[in-house]
Amino acid sequence: MSDVRGIGASAERSALATIRRGLSLTPEFRKGLAGTLALAVVATAGKVIVPIAVQQTIDTGLKDSTPDVGYVTRAVLLCAAAVVLTALAGYVMNVRLYKATESSLATLRVRGFRHVHDLSVLTQNTERRGALVSRVTNDVDQISTFMQWGGLMIIVSLGQLLVASVLMLFYSWQLTLLVWACFLPLMIALPRFQRWLSGAYTSVRERTGDMLAAVSESVVGAAVIRAYAAERRTAERVDKAVDANKAAQTRAQTIVGFVFPLTEIVAALAISGIVLLGVRLGLSGDITAGRLVAFLFLVTLFVSPLQTATEVLNEAQNAVAGWRRVLGVLDTPPDVADPGADGVELPRGPISVAFEGVHFAYPGGPPVLREVTAVIPPRSRVAVVGETGSGKTTFAKLLTRLMDPVSGRVTVDGHDLRGVRFSSLRERIVMVPQDGFLFDGTLEDNIRYGRPAATREEIELAMTELGLADWVDGLPAGLATPVGQRGESLSAGERQLVALARAYLADPDLLLLDEATSAVDPATEVRLARALEGVTRGRTAISIAHRLSTAENADEVLVFDGGRLVQRGPHDELVRQEDGVYAALHASWVSAARS
Amino acid sequence: MRQGMRVLGVAIRAEKAVFASAVLSSALYGGMTVGSAWALGWATEHVVLPAFSTGSATAGALWTGVLLIMGAALLKSIGVAGRRILAGLMQYRMQARSRREVTKQYLRLPLAWHHRHPTGQLLSNASSDAEAAWAPLAPLPMAVGVIVMLVTAAVAMVLTDPALALVGFLIFPAIAVLNLVYQRRLSPLATRAQQLRAEVSEIAHESFDGALVVKTLGREELETDRFRRRAEELRDANIAVGRVRGLFDPMLEALPTLGVLAVLGVGAARLASGSIDPGDLVQVAYLFTLLSFPIRALGWVLAELPRSVVGWERVRAVLEASGSMEYGRTAPPATSEPARLETSGVSYSYGTGPEAAAVVHDVSFGVEPGRTVALVGPTGSGKSTLVQLLVRLVDPADGRVLLDGVDLRELPYGAVAESVALVPQQTFLFDDTVRGNITLGLSISDEDVWAALRLAQADGFVARLESGLDTKVGERGATLSGGQRQRLALARAVARRPRLLILDDATSSVDPQVESRILHGLRDTAAASSVVVVAYRLATIALADEVVYLDRGRVVDHGTHDELLARCDGYRNLVTAYEREEAERAALSAEEEEAAARGAAGPGAADREAAERAAVAAAEEEGINA
Fold it and tell me: Pairing mode, if any, of strands B500-504 and B398-403?
């Protein structure tokens, strides 16, 4: 899997293919679509009622010198009944459409969300967080707007043009030709207008992204901005981004503003033509007055579809772009995939791990891990040390299968990690990352996240076992203390304590700590380390640490340098190899701690 | 409704000229829409029908008709273009204005305010709320134009035939009333859907931010369920909106059509009585047809109003938030000498009310110029809060923080930042280049930037970056490790040559080897500044002239490291935790090995080693105490 692709936008796919593929993913939408479309046709047919009524009134009702009021009344009442009927069809059609689109889009949203989580960390990191969120929020919303309005308009408009043209042909083929001759060039030009617009809208979207990023800095970086009095500079950056966004929006709107009224002018041309040619035809007896006037009304049926066409195309453009982005997520194969039912289910019990000639490089980057071969026997306590960039964290990510090796393999109890079911893997191997990320909720909610079925007693017990009971008691509301968004009400060290308790409660057979207590004070850290040592006895424990006391306590130390595993063995042994990397690390640690 | 109008009023006052031009364009559009119906009626009456009844048509009348039709259409088009472009301009200007103002507030309001407001909420205030607030501005000029259109149409109809006008007076108010009912029914539903949309977005944000936790604990299903529940609520809310739309939209479309039919019915009777000409009938019917679509612009404005009101209220809550940080006028001394810092009786608590426990309580200590003071204390003892007080990110509830004898609150804006540089625990990098992140707009030469990077031990990896100082970091800078980011933040601080440098556990992600190089570098060059350092590591503490030991927000003791070690149990416990553990372990393993050696008979290498080890342990204990 050396080739980690970013999340694409399926740009290679044409608009039609995108929509087709999008629809294939939303069965709820396709179900009953035929019925909804039939109702849409009925609702659309209502549009020609007026021209027909006008023609009938003029040609039949007003044929004689004294108008046939009775005939006109009957015709009008009949038409009114038809109008009510088509409105009813419109209502049923709308409700069906909303139900179908909203259900299908809710499914699409949830699928997209799940898929984002299924993507590897590496793939997730190719995108801004906000962009990922957009794919299950704004992008889906754009599709929904399109399906409920734009998409419907396309169908209604085409239906309207068709019905109007048929009626026109019935009245006069010459005038029909004339009307089409007027509107056809505009129709042909529409895709070109759409391309202009699409360019303008793409730039709007890009500038909007920049603008949001700039605004978010003023919130997320609030402390640093104040500490460095960088308010003015930040404000200038925000202003620039906001203005650029505004300029892009205005440009797009200007294009719309010029394109939109063209239809009016074309319609006026058509109407003028109808009057000029129609009168001539009338003089030679080829058309009745009522039919000619009906044509004037029928032309208006051409106006609204073509006028909204630009807007509909804008929306279609947005929807297709939204769809592309949503499909871009769904079509990005999880490069670190769950073998699912085909995978191995690991039995519970102490875990052994083996790295066999493992090689890793980030896409397009230099190798970060080279030819790493190591066996970690069950129940062992292993410390992983090395300078920044030596490959320790990569080692941890490969061991927990957050990433897959470029070559070589990682095995657990003899099974290649790639063949182990995620449900089993995640249950048995748990990593505590350095950044103690917490969810908005109480302390208890966050700890329970490690094992959703845990009772309050079990959580309290876990805190006692970890020696954290006193700390919990010291909090304003104990376990019920809210931690705030992303845990922001707690200090960095406290967040790490919660993250550790969460992992501990998950009760894994292999616990991997990636500098999981780096922000905790030494007394607490030592207490924690001891507690963990006691409670994880009989399990495999791997710690990545820059405090070498952890290494001294380990059964075995793995020393990384420049992406290679350069030394391994117990602390005592390694420290004696005086020209080794470990001895140097140790010396510098000792001097740092004692200076 | 009234609130909505008030929001629109704000925009109209702010953009008078644009709004006036947009309305004028729209009025032209409205007038010419009626004008085109009239032109058509004229052509029917004077050209088409005479031709059919007399069997001949004059070229003059024909071309007059065409001219009228084309002229009305051209003017109408100009009106449409102007209306659309200007309405957009107004909407975008107002959005941009709100965004700028909201962000300015974010930058102006004190950090304590930020602490009370979740990040996600603040971001949506500036993006979706600012957008929603001004969304009705797009159809607004058209709605005004439609009103002009309706008035013109009313006049035209009354002039044509009072009876036909009566039909119009029945139908058009009916449309307006229907719109109002529509809007009333829709408003709460739309608001709820908007709320749910925000909640769905928040869940996605949080969940993706915590992706690593979700993954490492295998909680994808749990998260998906959480998201699904809210997504389904949103779906139901949207369907409820759809039901109302589905009901009213066809009715709004049917009404004008019924109007035209009524016109035909009534018109036939009026024709029979000879009150009107057929041309009049066509004109009124055509007018109804032309009005049936634009009249809905009123509905669009009304439909956007509830969202607009909610959005504007959220924006306004930010704009009206008070609690700004006041600045004084006392000029700081113009010197580059190290600063003197003093705190006396400083207290601070998050939140208010009796529940709010003081995080920092009655803290007093001082930092003499050029000296280094270490703040040491267990996790959660209030060190980071104290640090925020020292650089005036927050103001104390009680007590004072003095820089060179001047209360921080009396200094003008920017004076603290000029003298004091903080490296916070949480690294923040801007979406900018390495250089931009370090200078933050100050004119610092590349040479000095590199010097700062060198001091922060960051010159190596920056030099290896593809574009060196011009490499973009920040949100997309995920390629930098935590330690690298921390070192950039450190370089940012030292590049300013601060008179007081405050490090809040600022090297936690950095290797001890690198850290020790950084600290030694700082000690060599920091002669020009006073330093406050929050630390756990002995190496860091060892650089301090004095230590302030904090526990539960209070100063327990302060003095030199040795003094505290000798007399303060809590301190000793904390800073010697590793060493004590190590010593215990060494003693334990010495015992074990001794036992093993005894069992293996005869003194050997193991024994000698154990003795050495014990000696080392003893020496280390001494070292700590020395």
Answer: unpaired
Dump pLDDT digits (tens) for A162-176. Answer: 888 998 999 999 999
**Domain-embedded: residue A553:** yes
Domain of A121, in residue numbers: 19-215+245-330
With CA atoms as reference, the chain A residue closest to B492 would be A228
Residues B291 and B364 both lie in one domain: no
Is residue B7's pLDDT more than 50?
yes
Residue A8 within any structural domain of the chain: no
> Of the candidates B258, B293, B393, which has its C-beta nearest A223's C-beta?
B393
**Model confidence over B184-204: pLDDT tens digits?**
788 789 888 888 988 898 899
SS3 content of chain A, % helix, strand, coil (to 5): 65, 10, 25
Distance from CA of A589 to the nearest CA of B (A): 6
Residue A88 contacts by C-beta under 8 Å, 6 or more apart in sequence? B250
Q: What's the number of domains chain B is made of?
A: 3
Nearest CA in chain B to A141: B197
Question: Backbone dihedral region of B362: left (phi > 0), alpha (psi from -120 to 50 degrees) or beta?
Answer: left
Among residues 376-405 of chain A, which lie with CB inside 8 Å of chain B?
387-389, 393, 400, 402
pLDDT at A156 over 60: yes
Whether A582 contacts A574, CB under 8 Å: yes
- Say whether both A278 and A425 belong to one domain: no
Question: Contact A594/B378, CB-based, under 8 Å?
Answer: no
Contact B411, B420 (CB under 8 A): no
Q: Residues of A numbered 313-332 whose beta carbons fall under 8 angstroms of chain B's beta carbons: which are they?
A: none
Q: Is A49 helix (H, G, I), strand (E, B) or coil?
A: helix
CATH of the domain at A25: 1.20.1560.10
Distance from the Cα of B266 to chain A's closest Cα (Å) equals: 9
Find the closest chain B residue to A294 by CA distance: B282
Domain that residue B414 falls in: 341-575
Same domain, residue pair B565 and B589: no
* B494 plus B451 within the same structural domain: yes
For B51, which of A133, A212, A283 is closest by C-beta distance?
A283
- Interface confidence (ipTM) of the complex: 0.85
The CATH number given to whatever domain includes residue A414 is: 3.40.50.300
Chain B residues whose beta carbon lies within 8 Å of the beta carbon of residue A486: 119, 206, 209-210
The distance of A182 to chain B (nearest Cα, Å) reads 14
Determine, yes or no, domain membership for A1: no
What letter does residue A400 receive in the DSSP assignment? Answer: T
User: A363 and A319 in one domain?
Assistant: no
| Of the listed ranges A85-99, B17-31, B42-56, the one predicted with least confidence | B42-56
**In B, residues 439-498, which contact A (CB 8 Å cutoff)?**
440-441, 461, 475-476, 478, 481-484, 489, 492, 496
Residue A408 phi, psi dihedral angles, 5° rounding: 85, 180
Q: How far is A438 from chain B (nearest CA, A)?
A: 7
Does B264 sit within 8 Å of A76, measured CB to CB? yes
CA distance B274 to B268: 10
Residue type, B552: R
